[in-house]
Predict the 3D structure of the following.
Amino acid sequence: MTYQAATDWLFEQLPMFQRQGPAAYKANLEGTWYVLEKLGRPDLHLENVIHVAGTNGKGSVCTAISHALTETGFRVGLFTSPHLVDFRERMRVCGETPSEEWVVLFIERLQAEIPSWSYRPSFFELTFGMALMWFVEQQTEVVVLETGMGGRLDSTNIFPRPLVTAITNIGLDHQEFLGSDIRAIAKEKAGILKDGVPVVLGRMRPEVQSVILAHALRTVSEMHYAEPALSLSSDEGPFWGENQATASKVLEVLQNQLGWSEWNPPKQAELHRTGHLGRWNWLKPAASGARVLVDCAHNVDGLSRTMQAIQAEPADQLHVVLGVVVDKSLDFLWDILPQDAMYYWCAADIPRALSSSELQIQAGERGFIGRTYPSVLEAFHQAKSASGQRDLVVVLGSIFVAAEVLTADQ
């Protein structure tokens, strides 16, 4: 079996939320426990865990923490989602992914065993179990886990006593699963707090912070607040300064928690997020000289701040390549996007994608003008071809739109 065939089987056979939407969502941890039991409980061999939740920024925080610990000499496992270019991005040890051969062997084992299982696992449940197996095999000393969605019922929430938990910026997203208002969503995120385990809070709304504080009082979790960001410049994106500050505080708490008196965690300004694709991701310029940016912000808070930062960038004309998913309301989108940009409507190659023609209709009803394209790459190439030297080309919307562009850019 080739690596491509193995990953194709994984995507096609198992429910996957990012591709199928609500039908793949599992509102409990029973499936996760079932998979871990079938895999021999790899979680029992991983003692030092850092668990991070949030709406925006959690992946960047996890990546920064992982880099810092790796550079100090620890063997660090990092679990993030979703992947954008290669499935193996979801599981790294000291920055390295498992080999294609390792993935093939693991999936061949699953193909032989899953038909006899009494439960059909989701893509995320199985991928999480696979990552833990990889971390155990690689003898990791610390594991950094990014929550997939929510917190309380997320597969990553199975460790009873992590070293430290952290919650980044919380906004409105996945309301159909997490709750219709910001306080309900905050309650779900706070579900990663554990009895007596310290928690670090990033910058967030006061009403959100109060929900988490109330939960921390019940779990007797010592609260730590990230310091103010050193810089809010857009060089690394509108969220990076805050995420950098949150990661820095996690490392400080971790040092105290483990009593690593001989270890001096890196300063806030020294942290980086290299390798975290699709977040304020600059690509090589177009042939015209126009700059090209990919950012997969897709909820109200994320997209609002991303667009503010984009509009602060010097450009004669903004070219926006945009594709979205069918099961999300787009009402917020039209209040955020600028009407004077040139739009290139497209749809990612996934079942959940909203057709480019339907996207054009909804946009046209609100005064937005653009053309439809049969694929993401055709829209992207046309945007670059139409750009001038001082223009800015931006790819926005669905994570899978960003993924197709990034894959082609490799």
Summary: DSSP finds 15 helices and 13 strands in the chain. The chain has two domains: 3-270, 281-409. The longest helix spans residues 240-258. Confidence is low (pLDDT under 50) at residues 17-24.
